Amino acid sequence: MNNQAQLDRSFLALSHPVRRTIVERLTRGPATVGEASQGLPVSKPAVTKHLKVLEDAGVVARTVSGRTHVLRLRRRALRDATQWLELHRALWEAKFEAIEEHIAKEDTA
Length: 109
Prior knowledge:
The chain is of the alpha+beta class. The protein is built from 5 helices and 3 strands, in the order ααβααββα. A 3-stranded antiparallel sheet has the order 1-3-2. The model has no long low-confidence stretch (mean pLDDT 92).
């Protein structure tokens, strides 16, 4: 899969607050589906759909042991998204700094 497609899938996975909450909870370590989704204001079928999006994007991996489903974060997919964001943040910061310098020169002129 190319990097652009993976970025699209990662950002889609993070585009919903329920999925972001699940990812946030998994940053503390692996958790069962029940632990990762505890207290969320959605039904169990909705949790299942959100988990499918996260798994399809490669953000979350599931291990099944009997009736217990354990989720863990797959940091690689998030690392690519983070690198993309950092690159663009740096570019925009450089542009804003240039604008600030230009304004400062005009104020002193």
